[in-house]
Design brief:
By secondary structure, this protein is mainly β. The protein is built from 1 helix and 10 strands. It has a single domain, classed as Beta Barrel (Lipocalin), CATH 2.40.128.20.
Amino acid sequence: MKKLTTFLLVCVTTFGMAQNEHAPSKTNPYGTKNPKAPTQLDDYKPMIGTCNCESERRNPDGTWGTPVKMTWKFSYIMNGMAVQDETLKADGKHSGSIRQFHKDSLKWYVHYYASAAPTATLSAWEGNKTKDGNIVLYKPQKAPNGTEGFSRLTFYDITDLGYKWIGEWVDKNETVTFPFWRIACVKREE
């Protein structure tokens, strides 16, 4: 009986560790990409880690608000098969996303959540990395005047040193653009 118990304990421990070998740990605080994950997880590779950022939102009068300091952390989750990000803002409005690449549709699906607006259904954007190296995501959204369009989120100027992000409303032809949020980030030295 003792041998069977020891054997089962070793099997369960080994299986459990194998299921989480790419999770964040002391050695890899942001986790690692699973070799079985879609290659597109590399789209977010330069962002894995923590950045110091400044976030600016558009005021109702059209001017940009006072920049808010924040940290933006990207990590591998789901045993290295997806990416999660978390923002911690000085104004106490925190948020995050779960980013999964779907092999069949060849698109990123990004599910957003925020501390200021808990919801039963998460907002979701979809998109891809473009030829110029930007990551562009869309969600159908009407403008305040009822015009059909999209919420477009773009990561750009992506390097190992940092990145920029902009949230915009665009019409269906993407000829009318209204930026409503922008963030600039610099990677922390760790």
